[in-house]
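Section 3.1: Structural characterization of target chains.
Under the original work plan, the team committed to producing a structural model for every single-chain target entering the pipeline before any wet-lab resources were allocated. The record below documents one such target. The sequence was received from the expression subgroup and is listed exactly as submitted; it comprises 286 residues.
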Amino acid sequence: MSNPRINLMIGIISISIFPVLVKWAPVSGVTSAFYRMLLGLLFLLPYVLFRRKFTLPIGTLWLPIVLCGVIFASDIAVWNLSIHYSNATQATLLTNLSPVWVGVGTFLFLPDKPGPRFWLGTLVALIGMIVLIGIETFTTMKLDLGFALAMLSGVLYASYILISKTVLNKIDIVSFMTISMAVSSSYLFVICLIFNQPVSGFDATIWTVFVVQGLVCQLIGWLTINSAMKQMDAKSVSLSLLSQAVVTGIFAWLFIGEKITARMIAGGIVILIGIAITYTGRKKTA
């Protein structure tokens, strides 16, 4: 069995380049999300069809799998809308409250209750996120539509993690991703039509970016994250995903020339310390 922590690390690196690619290509974020899901599905289908790796879910699993597809797509759409109505930094901070919602959801609905170490690690990691983004963003937040949408995005992300964790205990990863990505891409296509987002007429560079998003950010990224999710608890996975902000900052520095400040480095270190707290002293995952 593969190492879940290595899989999680590969997944975080793979999905962290997505915001950089969105900035790189002058295309709507919702359009990027649609092609990310669609091309990820198209890359997966040959393996599913020719290797006959698809397992038809039992009747009771269809609803949560479809819900995962809708929730994941809704999270991306809502996050992009929250940026439109507020700003990227506020949206990022509020969305990254998702480990808190995962902890609350786990406490209410799952047998593996979060302990003091998880809450301490979450608190430290969120403090690191505030430092990374800037304390001024935290202190000047407005309770407006953008704030509400960003909070909703965090709840949706947490809901996806909790539901997918439950589903992945009962079905293989490839079958789960095939159905959920088909639902997500169909749903996002409808969103593009409703909000009049472009879905054609792109040049070769943008299509190349779409391919990288589908293959790396979606297929490789979430195959490995879901593989880790299958073996680890949802709380640790959700908290570890906060390190995406750190990795994204490094990619932005390397590829689009964004500056890395001392404040960002300090925030990144605090985030990683918070994540490490949740793992220190834990029993090895089976």
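The longest helix spans residues 204-231.
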